[in-house]
Amino acid sequence: MAAREVVVRCTDIHKKFGRLEVLKGIDLELHRGEVIVIFGRSGSGKSTLLRCVNFLEDPTAGTIEAAGMTLRGGHRTSRQRAQIRQLRLKVGMVFQQFNLFPHMTVLQNLMVAPSLVKGTDKTELRQRCLDLLDQVGLADKADEHPIRLSGGQQQRVAIARALAMQPEVMLFDEPTSALDPELTGEVLSVMKSLATDLHMPMMVVTHEMGFAREVSDRMAFFHEGKILEQGSPEDIFQHTQHPETRAFLDAVL
User: Fold this and answer.
1) Spatial contact of 233 and 215, defined as CB atoms under 8 Å apart
2) Do the Cβ atoms of 185 and 176 come closer than 8 Å?
């Protein structure tokens, strides 16, 4: 059986904030059609890694390969800054907070970036964005403003907005942590459909272990800036190798 294509490769990623070293040599690959769940305690470096993959944070050292580009941590030339802009067009990201434009309708929130950045035809773009809203179960909310939506609905709009850029990879940084428990399920349902129906490669930082067990292909446990353990959900839940991993799972399950 042929090996799956690598769509993101992180090699020896380090990240320092002053004297604090948050990432201490991360090696991680994401393959086409794969879902990786990254989990661990607060401050272990999970979100920082995602921000490095999208170059919202510049790695102190190491190499990121994504969307056909290879970028290293360190000083940026004008050419490298242009590469980062291109990478962000192909690597979508959904954050804890929804960050929707409150003065725009839901549909306008989806259309603004592709229209400005890609110059997509407005008629074609409008239909594509309406289709995305239908996909996330919000076809009837196109003309509403975000303030009139629940937190779960706003996060689903944020997912649709990221998809409107037609990314090759999606990154999710604790997308349900700002939601009430009863709203979490609707967001996780959309993410499941991305994985199972569209086979979208995804890196997901989350504490939702039910989602991890059901949807992920691989899980990576972060501990003090390193990947302490990784494997299939069965490996992690049933054959845990490290007491730190077991203690974390016992606390959240």
Assistant:
1) no
2) no
